[in-house]
């Protein structure tokens, strides 16, 4: 059966519509052919025949041009909107849709059909589903995707940036080495800033070193998690990336710079390190998390987006498994991804209560007393103050109330991203009681598929990231690096719906028993209506362009190219 990808999965980085210049060329007539029409000796019937032939040939050419996508080697800025799939969770009235559905199902076991794809250098998600049928008004609103308002990826750099690139991308004397610590998405943030700092210092970047994670005992290295050659190739016009230091720059003892203030500017970076880098040839930085300012010049903001959404592609083994799990969720219909932060270490670090009762809370309190270095929450605040300030993850009971108020159907399918919850299945009972269709990656995977990644929390987190990236709706229970990364990535790839729980504002209503269920639902929906439209980035410390790519990395149609 013919592959249906031309209709079902659209690559937002390819233009399937001919440009005005292409149309002009298609419709232009060469001088020899023009002479046929102007010649007085040509019979009228012959002229009509030639004219008909030309129009037929032109129409055929346009049809072929529209059918075959353009090359993926270059990425153009084209309009991205949430592509809807004809698959519905309800019976489809259209015979055409039934044909498409049959085509999808027939190819579901093929590795080359109906799965997330790579368009140019970016990972392209599966289409969102068209949900129809006997839905309530609240359920219809819940599944509704936000309007893109005409925004699409737009990473065109200035002339000055491109001129400097010719020299910087060939740098062979100055090298930057960066050690990235923390979990997967925290490491990704540091890698993104490492690329930007290398650009600021006009240095070549040595492939970042992933520090061994002592909490999760993860010893993964960069090539285990990311596609090295893709990383180098995507950034070759911006900086030079090398796998290791050349022998001429190896020294017996290298100073590692760790004391960097928060929110430093490119000027500070250059003033602090450029002279040292010129003299020594190598600069080693560690602990870059949130050290570089969130407010950078336009070219550097676009570079951040290029690294996050294009260069940092997961390794092929991770992509393969992640795509397979996403496809298995997607083929069954629309699904919601919940990133639940219910792991033991999260409760320890935040200083919050688990919602599982005194017995479990006592275990967390004891760990905090014996290992106070892990507590990152504000130590001068009580649990209630932390919770009402929005510093605690939503537990399963609170998430269930939020979903019900937002209009999520009880029959909805939920992918649960995140590590093993503290308390095991007991931790999810309040959620499962209301929404029974909960699925984890361990349930989706077939025998042996997850085995290569069981000792790598970063790889497992990457698989969660891929399945969540492809979901129709994404909802995190806590802020965190993964939630922000997915929020921005999904916005960049077509403004797929992400709902950020407004904990600080909504939690007081959770405590107010005088509010009716109907009024409570109305209040909760009104607090989360920002998910229905692109939200421009605010120039504040916590507003990263990676989470809010509008407007620096996304423009309205017709205002620039990648």
From TrEMBL:
Example of a GO biological process term: fucose metabolic process
Annotated metabolic or biological route of this protein: Glycan metabolism
InterPro entries noted in UniProt: FucosylTrfase_pln, GDP-Fuc_O-FucTrfase
Keyword Membrane: yes
GO molecular function: glycosyltransferase activity
GO (cellular component) term, any one: membrane
Assigned protein family: Belongs to the glycosyltransferase GT106 family.
Protein name: O-fucosyltransferase family protein
Originating organism: Gossypium davidsonii (Davidson's cotton)
């Amino acid at each position: 059966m013919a592959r249906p990808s031309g209709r079902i999965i659209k690559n937002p980085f390819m233009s399937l519509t001919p440009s005005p210049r292409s149309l002009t060329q298609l419709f232009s007539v060469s001088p020899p052919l023009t002479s046929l029409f102007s010649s007085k000796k040509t019979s009228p019937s012959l002229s009509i025949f030639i004219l008909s032939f030309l129009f037929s040939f032109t129409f055929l050419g346009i049809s072929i041009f529209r059918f075959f996508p353009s090359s993926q080697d270059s990425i153009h800025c084209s309009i991205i909107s949430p592509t809807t799939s004809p698959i519905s969770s309800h019976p489809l009235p259209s015979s055409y849709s039934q044909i498409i559905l049959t085509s999808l199902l027939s190819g579901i076991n093929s590795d080359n059909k109906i799965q997330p794809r790579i368009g140019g250098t970016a990972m392209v998600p599966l289409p969102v589903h068209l949900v129809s049928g006997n839905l309530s008004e609240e359920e219809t609103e819940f599944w509704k995707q936000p309007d893109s308002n005409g925004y699409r990826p737009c990473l065109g750099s200035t002339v000055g940036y491109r001129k400097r690139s010719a020299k910087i991308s060939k740098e062979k004397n100055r090298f930057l080495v960066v050690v990235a610590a923390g979990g997967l998405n925290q490491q990704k943030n540091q890698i993104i800033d490492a690329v930007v700092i290398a650009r600021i210092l006009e240095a070549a970047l040595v492939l970042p070193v992933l520090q061994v994670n002592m909490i999760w005992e993860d010893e993964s290295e960069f090539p285990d998690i990311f596609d090295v050659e893709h990383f180098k190739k995507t950034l070759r016009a911006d900086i030079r990336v090398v796998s290791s230091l050349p022998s001429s720059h190896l020294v017996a003892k290298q100073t590692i710079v760790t004391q960097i203030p928060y929110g430093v500017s490119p000027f500070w970076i250059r003033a602090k390190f450029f002279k040292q880098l010129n003299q020594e040839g190598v600069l080693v930085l560690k602990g870059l998390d949130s050290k570089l300012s969130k407010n950078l010049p336009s070219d550097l903001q676009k570079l951040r987006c290029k690294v996050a959404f294009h260069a940092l592609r997961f390794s092929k083994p991770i992509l393969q498994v992640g795509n397979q799990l996403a496809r298995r969720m997607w083929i069954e219909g629309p699904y919601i991804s919940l990133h639940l932060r219910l792991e033991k270490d999260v409760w320890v670090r935040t200083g919050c209560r688990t919602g599982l009762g005194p017995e479990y809370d006592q275990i967390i309190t004891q760990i905090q007393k014996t290992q106070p270095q892990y507590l990152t929450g504000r130590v001068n605040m009580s649990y209630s103050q932390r919770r009402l300030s929005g510093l605690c993850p939503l537990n399963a009971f609170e998430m269930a109330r939020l979903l019900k108020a937002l209009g999520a159907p009880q029959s909805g399918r939920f992918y649960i991203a995140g590590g093993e919850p503290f308390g095991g299945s007991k931790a999810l009972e309040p959620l499962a009681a209301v929404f029974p269709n909960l699925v984890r990656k361990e349930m989706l995977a077939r025998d042996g598929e997850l085995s290569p990644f069981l000792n790598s929390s970063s790889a497992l987190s990457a698989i969660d990231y891929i399945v969540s990236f492809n979901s129709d709706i994404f909802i995190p229970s806590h802020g965190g690096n993964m939630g922000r990364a997915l929020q921005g990535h999904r916005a960049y790839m077509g403004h797929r719906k992400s709902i950020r729980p407004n904990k600080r504002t909504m939690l007081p209503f959770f405590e107010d028993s005088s509010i009716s269920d109907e009024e409570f639902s109305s209040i909760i929906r009104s607090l989360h209506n920002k998910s229905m439209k692109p939200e421009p980035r605010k120039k504040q410390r916590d507003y990263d362009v990676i989470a809010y790519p509008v407007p620096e990395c996304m423009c309205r149609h017709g205002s620039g190219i990648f």
